[in-house]
Amino acid sequence: MALSLDDDGRSDGPTGVELTRLRSAELFAVFGDERESEAAHESAREALVHLHLPLVEHCARRFRNRGEPLEDLVQVGTIGLIKSIDRFDSERGVEFSTYATPTIIGEIKRYFRDKGWAIRVPRRLQELRMQIGTASAELTQSLGRSPTPRELAEAIGCSVEEIVEGIESSNAYSTLSLDASDDGDDGTATMLDAIGVDDEGLEHVEIRESIKPLLDKLAPREKKILLLRFFKNMTQSQIAAEIGVSQMHVSRLLNRTLEQLRTSLEESS
């Protein structure tokens, strides 16, 4: 059944939305049931991909007119959709579309980032460049100055020579004039028009910094559960197998820990 989406990525009417949700829930029940055969799992997975392709197309259209064919962007976004299906935990209580959208968009953005290299640079150097950027920002904040290559190497876990190579590889990244058009509908929009927009992540900085000392006070097991759940995207079932307890116990520990963090955060504010 083909579904059309409006500007918010939703289908035309409540009937279509409800049918999609019900069908999605049925397929995820089969996909996550260990008693089902491998063929049933693959069939459910393929059906989930086709069911949510309109979401991929909606996300891809946000990046049209940027020099890449829409069909290619849909293919790249589908990779993000498949990753989301494989990682989704229906017990989380969130809509799959809400969970999948950031992964789909992230995959498309990564595609543009990889295409932006003027000279083809090995994947390891591209990834190292991103690691250097992240580590440099964190060390600059903690040290109160720019880190040395050796300090960066120790933080990332590589050699000083690799750090230097990663920094030099940045020169291979292509640049774009601020006056260059993005080939919008009217042909007048430029990169300069995009400068100065609010960074949505900034509003969460204060919260993250407030939570750090609270996380340090958690027991090792509770801290590990949070790490596995929210940083490694493991399901509650996978966490239960990892730490050797029941899934129900993981759920109780997770809820209790989150409530404890919420209460401590409110008391400290």
From TrEMBL:
The keyword Transferase does not apply. It comes from the Bacteria. This is RNA polymerase sigma-B factor. SUPFAM superfamilies: Sigma2 domain of RNA polymerase sigma factors, Sigma3 and sigma4 domains of RNA polymerase sigma factors. Keywords: DNA-binding, Sigma factor, Transcription, Transcription regulation. The keyword Ribonucleoprotein does not apply. PANTHER family: RNA POLYMERASE SIGMA-E FACTOR, SIGMA FACTOR F FLAGELLAR. NCBIfam families: SigBFG, sigma70-ECF. PROSITE patterns: SIGMA70_1. GO terms for molecular function: DNA binding; sigma factor activity. InterPro entries: RNA_pol_sigma-70_dom, RNA_pol_sigma-B/F/G, RNA_pol_sigma70, RNA_pol_sigma70_r2, RNA_pol_sigma70_r3, RNA_pol_sigma70_r4, RNA_pol_sigma_r2, RNA_pol_sigma_r3/r4-like.
